[in-house]
Each structure stands twice: as C-alpha cells, then as structure tokens.
Amino acid sequence: MAPSTPPQSSEPQSFTPMDKEMLDIGGTCQYLTCDNYDFLPFRCESCHGRFCQDHRTEAGHKCAHAGEWARRKAQQQANRTAITPLSQRPTINTATQCSHPQCNTLIDTLNSVGVVCSTCNRKYCLKHRIPEDHDCSKITPVGARQTSVAVRQTDKARAALGRLKLWGKEKQAAVLPKPKPSTAASRVIALNQLKKTAKGDDKIPQDKRVYLHVEAEANTTTSKLPKGEFWYSKAWSVGRLLDDAARGLQVQNVNNRGGGEEERLRVFHVEGGRLLEFGEKVEDVLAQGNTIVLLRGVGPVSVEA
Length: 305
Description:
By secondary structure, the chain is an alpha+beta fold. It contains five helices and 14 strands. It is rod-shaped, with a radius of gyration of 41 Å. It starts with 14 loop residues before the first strand and ends in a 9-residue tail after the last strand.
C-alpha cells in the first residue's frame, strides 16, 4: 500500500503526521474495525493513538478525549499573548520627563517617545534630541568616571578662585563705596538717603530690613541695570537674597537649573572681602549700607589648595 498523503489545509488539525524516519516500520491503524497498514500513520494529539488517513480525525476514530488538543492549544496561546495590564502601560504618573532643564514634556508614553543622546547618555523628547538643542557639550555624561569628573571640577574651581583673587586686586577699588561717614550723625544721614532710593518687597517689616548697595560686575555678569539700592529681609538666606538681587538688576540666573559652575552666580561681600555661602543668614554676614557684587563663574566659596 502506498503511503498516505495528508491533505493540505491552513486550519489547525487534531492530528500530526508521523516522522518520515518511520517509513521502515510504519504501523497499523488502531481504529477497532480497521486493519490497514500505513507507512506514514497519523498521531491523534488528543488520545495519542496512531491511525490511517481515513481515521486520522477525532470524529473518524471516535476519539475518547475529543477536544483535548484544542483546549490545550488555546491555553498555551493565551499564556503567550497575555495582555499587559493597564497599570503597567505608560501614563503621566509612570512616564519620564525630558532631561532638558527647561522642558516639561513627558516621554516614554504612548504619544511621545524618548530619544537617548549617545554623547551625554540622557533621554530627551523629539524637540531636544539633537545635541545642539540641549547644550550637550556642557553636560557631564551619565556614567562618566567619577574620579575624572571630580578632578575636572576641582581644576575649574581652582581656576575660578584664581580669577576671583585677580578680580579682587584689580576691580575691588572700583566698586568699593565712598569712605564711610566718620560720625554717627553722618552715618544716619547716609543710611536715610539709601532708604529713600532703595527698592524691595513692601511686605518685609521695616525693622526686618537690611539696606544694601547691589552691583553686577561687568566682566563676569551681563545685566540690564549695572547697580542699584535694595532692601532685603534679615531672615533670608544668602541664596534667596541672590535670587531677588538678580531679578532686581535683571541678571540672568540659572543657579536652580543645574549645569556647571561657570554659569552659576555668586555673591561677593565687598566689606568682608569674600564670597558668601548660599546657606548663610543675611543678618549674620551683612550690615546696613554694605555693598554686594554679583559675580558669575568664580567657583565655590573655598577650594582646597
């Protein structure tokens, strides 16, 4: 008897052709009323019996486990194509924000993809994906060796401190206020004159104000107003005073956006001859009528030699 040939069909079947290696042995159909010998028998995937072409289907051999293969196949398919729960899909609560400091776009969502910059290893929205659009050259790459970064930062800080010392020698005389009045009466008159021209937040009580001369050093800071007289709260920190002073002189302030030290503003106390720490309290370091200067890129307050 010639080996049987299974019909061609794209639909899933409950039977499987036996391997061609069994041509040398073949097999007899296991249906009770059939004794046909088939060199290529079929195996029922439900009862695992062996049958000829005429009895290969479950209905053909009256399978005792009819439908078992279909249920098993459906379960396997369901396990492979399990739908991701809604809680695991990207939402505004699970999405990531664009790494650009001025961008609030949420990325890795269904509506906005994220693009990783190969230079700084940060992820950006489509608008800021190009290195020039997010100032990539000024950003320390994610994953960079910490030792190298620390060395570069220290070198920059030392160089900045050197610039500050040079500025102090060459420019301090130009911004120092006129000699202080020697008598108590004249000092009161000078302070009263300062109070008349000073500006500030009217919500600050009179007894909580400190009146200062504020300047922006032209070599390091570009401002629309080179100098002015202002009052601030004695209870403020130097950092808050700096923010308010920058607004008063219309100086660009990027201290709260991160970035390198070369872009950060610092407060130089002329009478004290030093940079003030952001966390210092105004009433502890400044007195009525003092002069402060806003400087950019002069480094941290202190650097180890």
